[in-house]
Specification:
Blueprint (H helix, E strand, L loop, with lengths): L10 E9 L1 H10 L29 H9 L6 E10 L7 E16 L3 E12 L4 E11 L24 E5 L5 H5 L12 H6 L9 H16 L7 E8 L9 E8 L3 E8 L5 E10 L6
Antiparallel strand pairs: 1-3, 2-5, 2-7, 3-4, 4-5, 6-8, 7-10, 8-9, 9-10
């Protein structure tokens, strides 16, 4: 099955996730948290990093491949957006339903974009978050669709207000994948080489988790429940053990822009980052 416009509208899921404090802590460790952020790593008064919402999507790459027919050998995570409707509890039962919303054709030699939107609810029906996933299917262009529309973003032209340094540990992808994203690109050396990489690469969502921690620490310290939205575009691969910086531009109205760069040469890893937060916690 090849990628076609007929994939638009196809359902993905439902997916279910029953989790407890150990799963929340495992996720936090998988995105670089530790003793310096004990509120994410200790069941006493545990707080949840909002991007834990990714765990509700499970192995979404395989699910989207089955729904659309794109070639997994050429797939990369292109963009990710999380919109939060209430705080994520430290334990619970989640139900996630998704739909393929767009298939964009960038051309035979430029690949395609597959966009899916997921809604995650608590078991009692309360809406928890909305996740918008964009996959870059490098081998699936030329199927006859239209290209994606341009999305201007008024990124500040000034120097960043903060730069938060981190070094994702060499073995971190092995920990992060235990939260649900078991795509072979991040663990299997042969699969990574087949996709054109020297070795397994860090999950884009793992890097976004690092950025989310940095943004909370700078803009909503100690209050992850104030986060309303986080979004970004994955533009360059990252090998574990590579030092990074999350650059943050604070703006008015509870909004900030951000990007992640390699510390050594400032090559951008995640771009077009947006972070929105409220003065009061979600309830």
């Amino acid at each position: 099955m090849a990628l076609t416009l007929e994939a638009v509208g196809r359902p993905v899921g439902p997916m279910t996730l029953t989790y407890g404090w150990k799963d929340v802590v495992l996720y936090a460790l998988g995105v670089g948290a530790g003793f310096s952020e004990i509120e994410y790593c200790y069941e006493k008064s545990l707080k949840v990093i909002p991007t834990f919402a990714a765990a509700a999507l499970g192995d979404f790459t395989s699910l989207l491949a089955a729904a659309t027919g794109f070639n997994p050998a050429g797939i990369l995570h292109g963009e990710q957006e999380f919109i939060f409707h209430r705080p994520i509890p430290p334990e619970g039962n989640l139900i996630t339903d998704g739909t393929i919303t767009h298939c964009y054709d960038k051309g035979r030699d430029r690949g395609a974009l597959v966009v899916a939107e997921f809604d995650t609810h608590l078991s009692d029906g309360q809406r928890l978050c909305t996740s918008v996933v964009t996959m870059f299917a490098r081998l699936d262009g030329g199927f006859g669709g239209v290209d994606a529309p341009k999305k201007p973003l008024p990124f500040p032209g000034r120097r960043p207000d903060a730069a938060v340094a981190a070094v994702p540990a060499v073995d971190l992808p092995l920990i992060y994948r235990l939260s649900g994203d078991t795509f072979a690109l991040h663990v299997d050396a042969e699969a990574a080489r087949a996709a054109g990489f020297e070795k397994p690469i860090v999950h884009g969502l793992c890097t976004m988790g690092h950025a989310c921690r940095a943004l909370i620490g700078c803009l909503t310290p100690g209050s992850p429940e104030r986060v309303r939205r986080i979004a970004g575009r994955f533009v360059s691969p990252l090998y574990a053990g590579t030092a990074i910086k999350t650059l943050i531009w604070s703006c008015s109205g509870g909004r900030a822009f951000w990007r992640v760069v390699r510390a050594s040469d400032h090559v951008v890893v995640i771009d077009r980052g947006v972070y929105e937060f409220g003065e009061a916690p979600l309830s």
